[in-house]
Write a structure and sequence with these properties.
Layout: H1 16-32, H2 40-46, H3 51-62, H4 66-72, H5 75-94, H6 103-107, E1 108-112, H7 115-120, E2 126-134, E3 137-144, E4 147-154, H8 159-169, E5 174-177, H9 179-192, E6 207-211, H10 215-224, E7 233-234, H11 235-241, H12 248-256, E8 269-270, H13 283-297
Parallel strand pairs: 1-6, 2-5, 7-8
Antiparallel strand pairs: 2-3, 3-4
Helix pairs in contact: 1-13, 2-3, 10-12, 11-12
């Protein structure tokens, strides 16, 4: 296995990792106690902050108040969002690659491996990787000469395991640490996603993705790219939209196998019941990403009153 290089730009998404560690703990508490609608002071006490500092931390991370966030993580909200997203997604899929508000249209372009390259499993391919902070924890980004081939998350102290996961997807490729190269691409991605990486330029043209997968998997991933930020769909609906009605279980498997999280937004697929589950990088992180996106789509309430 390649040695893990954790060099990151100190200015890149400054404070994001420490913020997310506390926010993730708060999210877990909110999830476990959502039915009782905990008060702001209860959540703040759980993560060891004063209510004032917790409210300020949460707003800095999410852009919304904890009260608003709690609304986003409820099943009822997920059900409403699922219903409201359908007409948007129908229109987006109907017009194909030129759908409005699609992440793909903004800055992502895909290139799949040929069948021969797929069989070779990356043999002879050089892949650069680097670790970089994000609002949802430490990310590992991998690049081939043709584009981004991997984007995942590393738990604290488990960076080697995250790299091993990437290497398992390209078993015959040669991996080497190059945080300067991956950092430039990651900063552009961060700015386009609204994370405001300091000192980075958005760049012109799309971020290129280099995909390795079966024809069916790539078809599913292309379907995921048509889901706009702030929208969600179900596995059944996604299978119907890609022309494979009744293949929800196979679609779920392809969604789980997505090698490029966030850019190919597999987090935007939930169960038809409204239950948020089945994310390779953890359900708590999936909830956090969905609520973060929803918070940027819908304005927060004026005054940001404390939790009821």
């Amino acid at each position: 296995m390649a040695a893990v290089d954790l060099a990151v730009d100190e200015n890149d998404l400054s404070g994001a990792l420490s913020d997310y560690a506390r926010v993730a703990k708060a999210i877990a508490y909110l999830e476990a106690n959502a039915e009782s609608q905990p008060e702001l002071a209860d959540v703040a006490r759980h993560i060891g902050l004063s209510p004032f500092h917790f409210q300020r931390l949460f707003r800095r991370w999410a852009g919304i108040s904890p009260k608003r966030f709690l609304q986003f993580i409820t099943v009822e909200h997920a059900k409403r969002n699922l219903a409201e997203s359908q007409s948007v997604l129908d229109a987006t899929f109907a017009v194909g690659l030129s759908g409005p508000s699609r992440l793909h249209d903004l800055f992502v372009a895909c290139e799949a491996m040929t069948p021969g390259e797929f069989r070779r499993q990356g043999e002879g391919l050089e892949i650069a990787y680097g670790f970089h902070p994000s609002p949802f924890g430490l990310c590992v980004l991998a690049l081939t000469p043709r584009g981004v081939c991997g984007l995942g998350f590393a738990e604290p102290g488990a960076e080697a395991a995250a790299l091993a996961d990437l290497e398992g997807r390209w078993p015959k490729a040669r991996f080497h640490a190059d945080p300067a190269r991956t950092g430039a691409v990651f900063a552009a991605i961060a700015n386009r996603l609204g994370w405001k990486a300091h000192g980075a330029r958005e760049g012109r043209g799309p971020v290129k993705l280099h995909l390795i997968g079966t024809n069916f998997q790539i078809k599913v991933w292309e379907g995921l790219l048509r889901i706009p930020p702030g929208c969600v769909t179900s596995y059944d609906a996604l299978s119907a939209r890609i022309g494979r009605p009744g293949a929800a279980r196979a679609v779920a498997g392809a969604v789980a196998a997505n090698p490029i999280s966030l850019l190919i937004p597999c987090h935007r697929v939930i169960r038809g019941s409204g239950l948020v589950s089945g994310y390779y990088w953890g359900v708590a992180r999936k909830r956090a990403i969905l609520a973060w996106e929803a918070g940027r789509r819908a304005p927060d309430e004026a005054g940001a009153a404390p939790l009821p």
